[in-house]
Amino acid sequence: MNLQRILGSDKRTALMRKNIFFSFLIKGWSGLVTLLLVPLTLHCLGDYKNGIWLTISSMLIWIDNLDIGLGNGLRNKLATYLAQEDMKKARETVSSTFFMLALIILPVMLAAIAAVKTFDLHAFLNVDPAVIPNLGDIMAVSILFVSATFIFKFIGNFYLGLQLPAVNNLLVTVGHTLQLVGTWLVYMGGSGSLLLIAVVNTAAPLLTYLIAYPITFYGRYPKLRPSFGTFNRHAVRTLFTIGVKFFVLQIAGILLFMSSNILISKLFDPSMVTPYQIAYRYFSITMLVFTIISAPYWSATTDAYARGDIAWIRQARRRMDKIVMGVAVVLAVMVAVSRPVYAQWVGTEVEIPLPLSILMAVYLLVILASLSYSYYLNGIGALQLQLILTVTAAIVFIPLTYLMVHYRHNITSVLIVMILVNVPGLIVNKIQLHRLTHGKATGIWIK
């Protein structure tokens, strides 16, 4: 057996494929943990409280993504500087990212905690105060832990910049495993406390990154360790140049993908979030597998583009087309067997209609197909068109959802709108990448 043929004929492809292999092992466990967490949390909290927790989780993602794109900026710039063998700029980029994240999140955390203590969350989320009287405390504690994680999760972006996504996946998986263990302990205690579930789920990732920090920067990569002495305001400016675009994409993405839970809770009932999320968790198994395979292409594309290796990018794109076709087949099979799978997974307590499963599969196929182009465009740094389309989709998403629900009062209406607003992005991403890799991109197509 020819090992070079299996791993690839160049170092970039070999490193990428090794990371894909180890990521499959790591993410396989992570996927199992996620599947176990769904019924365990549901049994622990019950249908109503579980729906509230899922809604709170989607709100916390807003904080998690307020890094003004610094994380992805670090990922791209670190990969570029290492390709150029410029260790000085590489360390300045790491240090500047770390300290800027701390400066950003501290005022946001204080303002958010003050807001949830004074704002009527019960009315906003349509939650019964008699069932969850301490909703403000739950949100405040969650915000505290998520804000601390916000600073240290840059370690994952650091490894992505090193073209080591398997290590980033390992950090995330350890956090998920701690969440599972903590949730099981809460379940065995029989308290059914939403506050305890919130603490377990928000503190576990933080603990993982706090352990990883000294291992990473005092053990494996001391020459890239953050220090105030290597903080560079010019490096911050460089990070912001590309980072702000990533930031706007992240915020628009939150409006598109994460606000659905809030909309369902508000327009229908918190309990309706549960079947929606169960269907999403089931079909997002394909997202898990797809991300394992495709995520390494981002930083590998950055490296290839910095070296002018467009031929490698075009070859990698052809492989990606086959992967997307395989995902479509898998999603169709998952729809066909969804009913018995739901019954075995979460029991018969929650009913997931077949139309909801079909539309969720279509939605994920559109998202994954679009991402299959975005990973290359992100690696190249061509973000302008993505930014325009994603922001436009985010602006029209909520009013279109309200309009659709008004005429068709069903949670599948939310998915129909989500599919419609994402199709234009898929089409334009495909056209832009083709132009970039065939020397036909000009004007806005190259930005």
Explain what the structure shows.
Helices cover 83% and strands 0% of the residues. It is built from 17 helices and no strands. The chain has helices spanning 3-7, 11-64, 70-83, 87-118, 121-125, 135-152, 154-161, 165-189, 194-220, 233-267, 273-283, 285-306, 310-336, 338-346, 354-380, 384-407, 412-437.
Biggest sheet overview: none
Gyration radius, in Å: 22 Å
Element order: H for helix, E for strand:
HHHHHHHHHHHHHHHHH
Low-confidence stretches: 1-9
Count of beta strands: 0
Q: DSSP strand (E) fraction?
A: under 5%
Give the fraction of residues assigned to helices: over 70%
- The averaged pLDDT comes out at 84
Number of helical segments with 4 or more residues: 17
The class by helix and strand makeup works out as: mainly alpha
Distance between the amino and carboxyl termini: 43 Å
Q: Could you say which overall geometry the principal axes of the C-alpha atoms support?
A: globular
